[in-house]
Amino acid sequence: MSIEGLLRLQTVEGTGLRFGARFSSGHETTYDSGEGVSAASPVEALLGALAACEGMDVISILRKKRLEVTAYDVVMSGERAAEPPKRFVSITLTHRVTGHGIPVAAVEEAVKLSASRYCSVHFTLDPQMPITSRWEVIEG
């Protein structure tokens, strides 16, 4: 399966850049150079893509187990190298699952399955870069 897209420069404002991308799915997104406030930078989008990819897996797995998730979020942080190309040198994702009677072991299994088997964004990143996954279960 291939994903095709078109990346087009939308505006140049001062030293900032803004790009728009349109994908074969019909969806569009915008990226900013990081100096503006109009959109996420490509690096922020990459971190968000990893969190969203794992998050979709985790929720899907928990739903298959018929667990009642009432809220879910992923706290993400990435440490970047000081020198260009300033790549990520480590990433930490904390999956916070809220629900009624959700076993910690079920969340742990879902997070580990996403990271080890399902999340294509995870597998696209440099395998030498540490990606740490944590999880919390909140009753509610």
TrEMBL record:
Gene3D superfamilies: 3.30.300.20. Transmembrane segments: none annotated. InterPro entries: KH_dom-like_a/b, OsmC/Ohr_fam, OsmC/Ohrsf. Pfam families: OsmC. This is OsmC family protein. It comes from Eiseniibacteriota bacterium.
